[in-house]
Each structure stands twice: as C-alpha cells, then as structure tokens.
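Notes to self after the Tuesday call (sharing in case useful).
The group wants a holo model before anyone commits to mutagenesis around the pocket. I volunteered. Ligand is adenosine-5'-triphosphate. Logging inputs and output together so the record is complete.
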Amino acid sequence: MPILYTKKIFSGYGDLRVLFNINFSAEDKKITVVVGPNGAGKTTLLNTITGVATIHSGEVVFKNRRLNGMPPYSIARMGIAYVPQMGNIFSNLTVEENLRLSGYFLSENELLDRLEYVYSMFPVLKEFRSRRAGTLSGGERRMLAIGLGLMRKPEVMLLDEVTTDLAPKIVKKVLETVVRLRDEAKLTIVLVEQHAARALQIGDKAYLLVSGSIRYEGDPQELLRHPEFSKLYLGIS
Ligand SMILES: Nc1ncnc2c1ncn2[C@@H]1O[C@H](COP(=O)(O)OP(=O)(O)OP(=O)(O)O)[C@@H](O)[C@H]1O
Ligand SMILES: [Mg+2]
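Result:
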C-alpha cells in the first residue's frame, strides 16, 4: 500500500519545467531509494511532495489526501518530515537548542519525551547536547539533521543526500540509522542518494531518475545490474 504517491506529476520552479510525468510511490514502512545523476530532479521530487516546487499538473497524495497547493508547513504538520540537502541546522545554537526549536509546537512534556526518543536513537547527540552544532563532524551533523526531523513525530521521512561527502565508514553508520528508522521507528523513508550502490543495498524499492523522467522502477538489486545504471555510474556503455 503506498502511503504517499504522485500521479502524472509535471513540476518545476515557476515556469521552469524539471519533472515530467512522474508516477512515484512510497510504500508504508519501507525504504524507497531514488538515485540519478546531478541535476536529474531528485531534490525537485522532494520539493514537489513538500510544497516547495511548482506543480504544473498531476497530483501528490498522502494518506488519501491531495497535497497540491498546501503550504510546506501544513504538509510538515501532516507527518512528512523533510531533511533537506543543505541541512537546516543553526550552527550557533547547541545540539539541544536545535532539537527544541524543531519541536517548538510540542508541549514541554511532549518535547522532553521526544528529546529522550531522539537521544535514544542517537546517543552521540545526547553526549554532545550542549555543544554548538557548528562544531559537529560531518556525520554528526547528518545525525542531527535526521534528529530534527524525528522531533516532529513524522510518519514519513524524506532524506536528501544524507551520506554525501562522508567517509565510507560514516556512510555505513548513517545508512544503518536509516534502516533503524524503518525497523524500530516504523517510518516510511524516501532516500535520495548519490552513493547509489550502498543506498540501493538497504532499499526495498528503487527509482532511477534521469533528466526529469523515471527510467527505472523496481527491485533495488536489479537496478544495480540495469544497463542504464552501469552507464551512468560506472561509465560503461
Ligand atoms: N530553486 C530552484 N529554482 C530554479 N531551478 C532550480 C531550483 N532548484 C533546482 N533547479 C533546477 O532544477 C533542475 C533539477 O535540480 P535538482 O536539484 O532537482 O537535481 P538533483 O537531482 O537533486 O541534483 P543533485 O544530485 O545535484 O542534488 C536543475 O536543472 C536545477 O538547476
Ligand atoms: Mg539534489
């Protein structure tokens, strides 16, 4: 059962057209991986779902409700957390101040519950709760960015390039966290990734997006053997 899907979406920014006829769906409590080269429109797909991009035609549906035309904050409140590519961390605030800010609309009791939950998922954030976020390592920052999304008790998490520019060992750690978000936190995950091969290993379903169109939809392992994928990622034609 898809909890979230797009139907015949054409979207972009103002008059600019970026995505063409996208039928995308994310199954409940599964990891859906979206890979594709730079500029393919991966971030735009997430921006389309979250009300940031311009929808020219088609629809976005979450739990049987149409999201078209809704502002980003309403979509966030419905249970879709967006961890953007550039991060949304305030470097001058401490780790805990960042987390509190993300859950600003919660009551103090809920906020404390939620903080404990995030700290149990990411003990490193608890350890560094009083440190300025700007002093965190790359991997720790990604954990914090995911933690910010978790503060809002989402059902769906959209993760944009959470492993980019990290050392292989840290990439592995972050992806293990993503698996825990599915298996322990029971979240539906959409994972947009450049580290395509590793992301595909943890995915339940995969999409290959090229030049604003879906070129492949299906089993992640099979995508690894898909000729177009090899061509794009390994330079084999
Ligand atoms: N805010 C924006 N306004 C106008 N054009 C944009 C905007 N954001 C992205 N674009 C354009 O849309 C196209 C798709 O970009 P997008 O960021 O979705 O690609 P991507 O697949 O996420 O790439 P990357 O792997 O580099 O993150 C690009 O041509 C880009 O220049
Ligand atoms: Mg992007």
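Two things stood out.
Residues 1-78+187-237 form a domain with the Rossmann fold fold (CATH 3.40.50.300).
The chain has a mean pLDDT of 93.
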